[in-house]
Amino acid sequence: MTRRNKAPKSVVKRLPIYLRVLDNLIRRDVEIISSRVLSEETGFTAEQIRKDLAYFGAFGTRGTGYNTSYLRERLLRIIGLDKQTKIIVVGFGHLGKALTRYNAGKNRYVDIVGVFDKKPGETGVEGLKVLPIDQLPKFMQKEKVKVAMLTVPADAAQDVTDLLVENGITAILNFAPVKLDVPEDVYVHNADLTTELQTLIYYASEDEKQHQAE
Prior knowledge:
There is one protein chain. Helix 8 links the parallel strand 6 and strand 7. The chain has a 6-stranded parallel β-sheet with strand order 5-4-3-6-7-8, sandwiched between helices. The chain has a two-stranded antiparallel ribbon with strand order 1-2. By secondary structure, it is an alpha/beta fold. It has 9 helices and 8 strands. Helix 2 (9-27) runs antiparallel to helix 5 and helix 3 (35-42) packs across helix 4.
């Protein structure tokens, strides 16, 4: 088992946030960054940042801080973003189109190599042709993709997931509002936009209730 696999999921989820901050710092020509400033940029405590990075080695110098370019390069390798990762999108409705368009045009870390839908035929984003789902096994044999974004309706999500897993997918970003049943060695991250919005509305309504009570 690699060092990356030993890190808790909560730590792994924070790594892309650190990477995004480092990207911004490099664009601002900041060469050295302290854990205190990283704390201000990310919202996490300096102690938490130091503990997170310690899972993967020693990156900074006591009393000086971190070299931003060096730390960024190390994080890219740790996460697996030092090379483009092949991804497929399954489900080409409004959300699937938006995700494909954004990641194909603005996410330099991924390479969307295939798009699948029950209504194939139309040309998607960046010239990608939308393929029928039954062509997925043959496609996967050729491309060896490990990551999929799933934007199909809830009632189709498990069947599609089973097909993805059978054909080598080991990580799924799931936008369907349903819990997926997968083997232990397959990682699923659920991105329920409706739930996130409802949570946000709760905080907005709480704030409004407090004002009314005053």
